[in-house]
Amino acid sequence: MKHADIIQTLNLEQKCALLSGETVFTTRALPGKGIPAITLSDGPNGVRKQAGAADHLGLNPSVPATCFPTSSATACSWDEKLGEAVGEALGEEAAAQEVAVLLGPGLNIQRSPLCGRDFEYFSEDPILAGRMAAAYVRGIQKNGVSACPKHFAVNSQELRRMASDSVLDERTLRELYLTGFEIVVKEAKPKTIMTSYNLINGTYANENAHLLQDILRKDWGFDGAVVTDWGGSNDHALGVKNGSTLEMPCPGGDSIRELMKAVQGGKISEADVDARLDEMLELVLSTHAAVEKAPRTFDAAAHHKLARRAAAESIVLLRNEGGILPLKPNEKLAVIGDFAETPRYQGAGSSAVNALQVDTLLDSIKADDSGITFVGYASGFERQGAAGAEKLEEAVALAKKADTVLLCLGLDELRESEGLDRADMKLAENQQRLLAVVAAVNPNVVVLLSAGAPVETPWAGQCRALVYGALGGQAGAGAAADILTGKLCPCGKLSQTWAQGHDDTPAKANFGGEGRNVEYREGLYVGYRYYQTAGVPVAFPFGYGLSYTTFEYSDLKADEKGVTLTVTNTGSCAGAEIVQLYVAKQDAKIFRPAQELKGFAKVFLAPGESRTVSIALDDKAFRYWNVKTDRWEVEGGSYQLRVGASSADIRLTAEVSVKGTDAPDPYEGLDLLHYVSGQIAYVTDAEFEALLGHPIPADVVRIDRNMTLGEMDHGRSPLGWVAQKVLRCRLDSSFAKGTPDLNTVFQYNMPLRALAKMTNGMVSMGMVDGLVWELKGFWLVGILRVVYEFVKNLSLNSQMENRLKNS
Ligand code: BGC
């Protein structure tokens, strides 16, 4: 133990007190023992330090900071160096604002384009997500503060996020949902990691011994602090025993007493508490020292410039018919679309940053010096409104005056938010209508799309160019102008497949449905792994993106350690190419996706320039998780190494022979027809059970601490029915108004126990148990217990706080 000297001076109460937060975003201090408090703040694309009232949903304001592009944007740069630079700037701003732990990056797998938080995550692919996240972590931690990769793990939807149970097989868990975290932990050594809200195969992530002990700590060697998501602790003592260090936000004295009781009653040992405390002290003391040393200012102009570079490298050119882009000097350009004036540059929720400054496309185009003639602006539509005839007429009149129309479309603020999954993948009706009427009078339409996740693009044929600007952060508009006018050559490539329609997406039948269980029936077949194996055509494939120049690939040399090839810029402008390496085994005995990304490299080339590009293959290149031997194995034989400009544009291939580990076939004798073919829409219950290795768990609502407030109508208490109805009405009316109330969404999906975890000690678990009695139909006894426990909690809390203050 690193801090045995301090630990031995603490009594059990003090030890337990240090393992939960004191306020929404700070830990507890014991000044008498030389232990300071530290601040944790969101988040992934900028620091969100709340100086006043604090919340975990991005509702109250925060200290201004640079708003970088969201992770789903920067992932499209496929540029680890850039990720590290952004991370370094984030860490610098955190330290300057006295933030010791930055709660990000998020690297959950984008299982479905409908997940409300896809914008906060990097990719549908674990290698790309893991490497980008590792780059961020390295950058953040260069400042001595801690990054906090999240949400560990299998947390790919917002619906019922605090109470949903992700049901999946061990191989899918390891290969798809954990590999990114494995990369981050092993390669970037984060000082903390945040567990997710959900259960995994019946056990909450935060108390899941398999996840936190077997995998995170033993297999990967993580020795940092595990932090709960806000209110994500279910059984704190079990969490501590199984590897969870810090309970957040501020559960109050009850959580401390719960831990003490668990030690005194033998449920966990004091050594468990000491082990967690040692991790906690290491985190607190090391990051506090770094924060103390750090300057209180940072170069905001330099960070804005970096944010602009990050946005520019992340923009993806999806369509460019007849080379309409870049815009030509002397061209008369009309700018249409509300997003030009009021940009959408980040997502809603806990990641929302109070940006230091925000560029707009309109200003950037007006300030452009490339010779374009700006002929006017029309907003064209209202963000959440219907198609207004007047706005359409104005847009059409303006479009007629221009050579080219730049149409700024996208998803509005309410369509992408933490806490809320998207209902569909569509662009708003009024925006689609606008495109149609504008294109009818001027065919030279360039669409610039602001969105953090894929949308359906049946309308793409109505525009000559489609530029995916993603959610480009505070400097995204300037970056987009640089790409549109040709000052910079687009080089981003998609980190998530754009399906032709939501109906084609692999998780659609098992995403965001009724009940708590989320069945990951599609197994490994997420994103391109599915589309390419099952032969489903897509709108824009994974890894796809156009450029203003062209690249040629030649001279591939390959062995099982990696590939080397020559890439030549054969066009007339300087640009960057993202070279991707996929591995395929066409004669595989153990079923696997048609091909999988195993490496990539980005190369900048002047016109005519050639360079040798090397992409190494690591231990993850050929392995698969064998559920029989319970470890990574390699199927021996011949593998195809495919080098391409996208997952669907393979330019060179080579065969290599790989020595296998001769493990027994884990699926021998099982009927897994649709997993073999990748036609996972037809997976039967029997097949899913065969893959899981056990029956599909029953999905029942139980009246216990984990019943959600939205489920109280399943209880036997009129009080519960009324409370549920009130919440439901508030929710429905906010949806009907088109402004979903995030707070109510959160409360509706919140389990009862979270009342005790998120009310700063006001509610105890004893009170929650009283509520449970009430909901079970013991009306009077239930209420009386709540009242009794309330008084008891109040008095115990004040005694404890006094003791802690004086220690
Ligand atoms: C989110 C986390 C976030 C935390 C603190 C939670 O609701 O899931 O990502 O870091 O709040 O704001």
UniProtKB/TrEMBL annotation:
Gene Ontology molecular function, alphabetical: beta-glucosidase activity
SUPFAM superfamilies: (Trans)glycosidases, Beta-D-glucan exohydrolase, C-terminal domain
Enzyme class: hydrolase
Keyword Hydrolase: yes
GO biological process, one term: carbohydrate metabolic process
Keyword Ligase appears in the UniProt entry: no
UniProt keyword terms in alphabetical order: Glycosidase, Hydrolase
InterPro entries found in the cross-reference section: Cellulose_deg_GH3, Fn3-like, GH, Glyco_hydro_3_C, Glyco_hydro_3_C_sf, Glyco_hydro_3_N, Glyco_hydro_3_N_sf, Ig-like_fold
E.C. designation(s): 3.2.1.21
One matching Pfam family: Fn3-like
Domain Fibronectin type III-like, residue spans: 577-647
Family indicated by similarity: Belongs to the glycosyl hydrolase 3 family.
Protein name in UniProt: Thermostable beta-glucosidase B
Organism: Faecalibacterium prausnitzii
Gene: bglB_2
